[in-house]
Design a protein that fits this description.
It is a single chain. The protein is α/β, with parallel strands linked by helices. It has 18 helices and 22 strands. Among the domains are: 207 residues, FAD/NAD(P)-binding domain (3-Layer(bba) Sandwich); 157 residues, no CATH class. Helices cover 25% and strands 13% of the residues. The strands form seven sheets. A six-stranded parallel sheet has the order 1-5-4-3-9-22. A four-stranded mixed sheet has the order 2-8-7-6. Strand 3, helix 3 and strand 4 form a beta-alpha-beta unit.
């Protein structure tokens, strides 16, 4: 069993600002040198309560230290750039660290071939090197389940090595949030970004003591509080930047796409209207409130004897929601063992012959990370409880005004998500009811303890992840281009395995929309169908994904939904999932990451990664997993490096589409030669045999 009292010192380094290596500068308030601000007067700067405490220069500012942000930093450091990386928590890695989901979501064939970005392969290699195997947890949902605090350590070592190899410099800003943007005179480039870094006030507990909801809005306020001391930082391009169309770039890599809202570029949120491009959508008009559920993960340890449990006073409010969910030929103990081992991240007895779901049953000392749909998923979907505020809600609150940004999340919903997670832990141990199955399948099983403390897997005194696992964010609307008059977007029809001859689509789409759908998915047969006026039901359907000539990375996972609940609050007795959302759920072909999906409207030196790409909510249900986030971060970083060297803007590489710009071809070639694929093997418009590429 891991010795949590011997937690590596990287977490202390990230909070104190002590240098972790020659090429990496860790920035924290204690060691700041105050610089005078030299900037034009703008509304954003005028909103500052005082001059910035620090002005920091960098070639590339990455806002958000999740997997896509970490990947972008890794690749940029290898290219020799000076990179500023900000993060709300003190861990890099997002999904696999601060959000706790260290059970890697991977598609079957891609994993068999190890067909990943170079850095993601290196991450997996270092996990195996750390533990002596890829799956120290012995989980059954993935080939790789491990401890979240190790993910941060591994990734930070990778960043340090990348900086050494490429002679780059990383300026790392933990506990730092974006607050304001300033634009150039033309309004088409980000000139600077104001961030706020926080640290605990003297004689107050260390950070990561309270759950996120208790401190998040304070973290975004300029003023010091009784709890937090604030440092105002202005990020700017290098004063000696070479001549070119822009002196620097900014990457949006936050978990909820904060910069998209803060910059007020066109974006979408929630369910998209039903159309021939997203025919499985359950709504006729956009519903911005129904996004996928978010999850506060936690780690629990199996014990030899029953443990005392202090049941929270709010437990009965959330108890009606919880369920084992899946109908199986199991008794109550089997269900407990099944869900415990689902995402087990430490296996104390890997050779045990007593098994469930093909893996050893839980034994004392085993540690499980919980991420369960009818458990610690919290799934609001209405205007009164949605987590990610809409544009109209933000405007009404004043968050879009200079100095008004508070993170764009509903604090009350975060708090309820935390309460739901704590309640699920107790239901797991003492519950006797099941909202989806027979109550006889749920019996008390008190032999467990919640792992709490700064030296435990989640790195928090309370035991929940530092940030919730976010499955869906704001998504930009790309720029208009050939075939995309209203703006580029990745859609359901571009990669789903669904057979659209299914009666559901004939019955639920009007004839014109159904015909447009069948033409859209006909592939090379589309022209013949139009010329010959082939009846919609007789038009063949391609058995592959759309091919993107401007691909800068790869992605594959099933279209996997955790739908919002129909009524508010989500935990209400008898509540159900929003009907129809799972219609698109299922198999998906391997696909690509087109550069057009990263380029927002209005701003030329901002690229969007993570879950903020130009894509529909159905596409986002697949483009959200670990290897995809790494691939899109790499693609963004290499595009920026290429653009700086060639004195061209990213949008100029794709504005001639469908004709492929020679520079776009050269960029793809560089990405491929660096060990980062932009397409899957033997997947082209001339090959319709993609049968081997089922993700599950």
């Amino acid at each position: 069993m891991p010795q949590f009292s011997q937690m590596p010192q990287f977490s202390q380094l990230s909070q104190t600002g002590i240098s972790a290596g020659v090429a990496i500068a860790l920035i924290a308030p204690t060691f700041l040198t105050i610089s005078p601000v030299q900037a034009q007067a703008t509304d954003a700067l005028a909103a500052l309560p005082r001059d910035p405490d620090l002005v920091v220069e960098c070639d590339l500012l990455i806002v958000g230290g999740g997997l896509s942000g970490t990947a972008a930093a890794y690749q940029s450091l290898k290219a020799g750039h000076t990179v500023c990386l900000t993060e709300l928590t003190d861990w890099v890695g997002g999904q696999i660290s601060s959000q706790g989901t260290t059970a890697l979501d991977e598609s079957r064939r891609q994993r068999e071939l190890l067909f990943y970005s170079e850095g993601y392969r290196e991450l997996r290699r270092r996990v195996e090197e750390k533990y002596g195997e890829l799956d120290p947890g012995g989980c059954w949902v993935s080939a790789t389940c491990f401890l979240p605090y190790d993910a941060h350590a591994i990734l930070f070592d990778m960043l340090e090595d990348a900086a050494d190899a490429g002679d780059g410099e990383l300026k790392w800003f933990p506990f730092t949030v974006p607050k304001d943007l300033t634009l150039n005179a033309a309004g088409n480039q980000i000139d600077s970004l104001i961030g706020i870094q926080h640290s605990p006030q003297p004689d107050t507990p260390p950070l990561n003591t309270e759950p996120l909801s208790a401190t998040i809005q304070d973290a975004y306020k300029y003023e010091d509080s009784a709890r937090l001391d604030k440092t105002i930082i202005q990020f700017v391009p290098p004063a000696a930047a070479p001549a070119g169309p822009t002196p620097w770039y900014v990457i949006e890599a936050t978990e909820t796409s904060e910069l998209i809202a803060l910059a007020d570029v066109p974006y979408r949120l929630g369910l998209d209207p039903k159309s021939h491009l997203n025919p499985s959508s359950p709504v006729e008009t956009n519903d911005p409130y129904c996004t996928q559920g978010f999850t506060y993960t936690f780690a629990m340890e199996k014990t030899e004897s029953p443990q005392p449990q202090l049941i929270p006073g709010y437990y009965l409010q959330y108890e009606p929601y919880f369920s084992w969910e899946q109908t199986r030929d199991y008794n109550a103990q089997d269900y407990y063992d099944y869900v415990f081992t689902y995402r087990r991240i430490w296996n104390a007895d890997p050779v045990s012959e007593d098994r469930i779901a093909g893996v050893p049953r839980p034994r004392p000392g085993d540690i499980s990370m919980q991420n369960w749909t009818w458990g610690n998923d919290y799934r609001p979907g209405n205007a009164v409880d949605n987590l990610i505020y809409t544009h109209d809600q933000l405007a009404a609150q004043g968050q879009l005004a200079p100095g008004g940004w508070l993170g764009g999340l509903r604090q009350e919903t975060l708090r309820r998500g935390e309460e739901n997670a704590f309640s699920y832990y107790h239901w797991f141990l003492i519950g006797t009811t099941d909202s989806q199955l027979d109550d006889s399948l749920k019996e008390p099983t008190p032999n467990s303890r919640l792992l709490t403390g700064h030296d435990t897997p989640m790195g928090t005194a309370h035991g929940l992840s530092k940030f919730p696992y976010i499955r869906e964010a704001r998504r930009i609307v790309g720029r208009p281009s050939w075939g995309y008059d209203d703006g580029f977007e990745i859609n359901e029809v571009d990669f789903t395995w669904i057979d659209f001859s299914d009666p559901f689509y004939i019955e639920n789409l009007d004839p014109a929309t159904y015909e447009a759908l069948r033409v859209e998915v006909a592939g090379q047969a589309a022209i013949d169908a139009l010329v010959n006026e082939t009846p919609a039901g007789e038009i063949p359907q391609r058995r592959r994904s759309r091919i993107y000539p401007d691909s800068i990375g790869i992605a594959q996972y099933a279209i996997d939904f955790h739908p919002c609940m129909l009524e508010s609050p989500p935990e209400a007795p008898g509540n159900i999932e929003r009907p129809g959302v799972r219609q698109a759920h299922g198999q998906a072909y391997p696909t690509q990451i087109p550069l057009r999906a990263l380029i927002p409207q209005k701003l030329d030196n901002l690229l969007v990664t993570g879950k903020g790409l130009a894509m529909s909510t159905i596409a986002a249900a697949a483009y959200r997993v670990h290897s995809y986030e790494w691939s899109v971060g790499v693609g963004a970083a290499m595009t920026i490096d290429f653009a700086l060297r060639n004195e061209v803007m990213p949008y100029q590489l794709v504005e001639s589409m469908p004709t492929l710009d020679p520079l776009m071809y050269e960029l793809r070639r560089e990405i491929e030669l660096s060990g980062n694929p932009t397409q899957f093997p033997n997947t082209s418009i001339f090959n319709e045999d993609w049968e081997d590429w089922r993700p599950w």
